[in-house]
Amino acid sequence: VTSLDEVTTRVRADNPSPMTLTGTNTYVISAPGADTAVVVDPGPALPAHREAIEGVVADRAVRVAAVVITHHHADHAEAVGWATTWRAPALAFDPDRIPGTEPLTDEQVVAAAGVEVVVHHQPGHTSDHVCLRVSRTGVVLTGDHVLGEGTTVIAWPDGDLGAYLTSLRALRELEPTALYPGHGDVIGDPAGHIDALLAHRAQRSEQIVDALAAGGGTVQEIVAHVYPDLRADLRPAAGRSVRAHLADLERQGRVVPRGEGWHGG
């Protein structure tokens, strides 16, 4: 449990993995003097994690007014049912993907806990992904859109690289004071970090084009060329991101599908 600023406390779940880094970050937002709190991404349904969240709520002498979920992946949304116990609505961009939630809309303002949390639909990692800007501090909670370290998986076919790049640029235009990611630590240089991610994705696309020129035509062959030292358990996720890059390159006319493989356009 870590206090990050005057309104935001991070509660990190004990679910570390190569995909979740040090664990899923749940955020409890409540302004000084408020009698309610907003919980963002309740996370995995681990009893100790729930106890830690409720401990923060109790220490602040508040009640949970809303539970907001950035996207449907289980490490962020599995514990959505806790909202019922807390007698709070659970909110998500696509309720069909997270049963028990009510709909969020782009640029909706969730006014609770003495703050305004502005919803920004920023697809790419998944189609239902949102980021959340806390107006009082200028901080943006990024879910899996931007991680504390490394790069997120573009979870093709639901994920879309073109949408992701557009969303990254939109995130930069919000001029956040800091980024609070769904995994990893606070990003204190948002603009620099976002620029680095954009440059990385452009470089990755060129590496994929180079892999095709070198004779790698299938997704698996491209993964082997681009990620030669990648652990076996991470290759399926890398394959989804490669597939998302290929779809974007196809839209640009730079590659074409042929049988089970791909070729330069």
Q: Can you tell me about this structure?
A:
With 265 residues, the chain is of the alpha/beta class. It has helices at 47-59, 74-77, 82-85, 161-173, 190-213, 219-226, 235-251; strands at residues 2-3, 8-12, 25-29, 36-40, 63-68, 90-92, 102-103, 109-112, 115-121, 130-134, 139-143, 179-181, 255-258, 261-264. The chain has a seven-stranded mixed beta sheet, covered by helices on one side. Strands 8-9-10-11-12 form a five-stranded mixed beta sheet, with no helix packed on it. Helix 4 (161-173) runs antiparallel to helix 5 (190-213), helix 5 crosses helix 6 and helix 6 (219-226) crosses helix 7. The N and C termini lie far apart (51 Å).
Q: Specify the structural class.
A: alpha/beta
Low-confidence stretches: none
End-to-end distance, in Å?
51 Å
What's the overall average pLDDT, rounded?
95
Order of helices and strands: EEEEHEHHEEEEEEHEHHHEE
Strand percent estimate: 15-25%
Radius of gyration, whole Å? 19 Å
> How helix-rich are the residues, as a percent range?
25-40%
Strand order, biggest sheet? 1-2-3-4-5-6-7
Note the main sheet: 7 strands, mixed
Q: What's the number of helices?
A: 7
Tell the overall outline.
elongated
> In total, how many beta strands?
14
Keywords for this entry:
265 residues, 5-stranded mixed β-sheet, single chain, alpha/beta
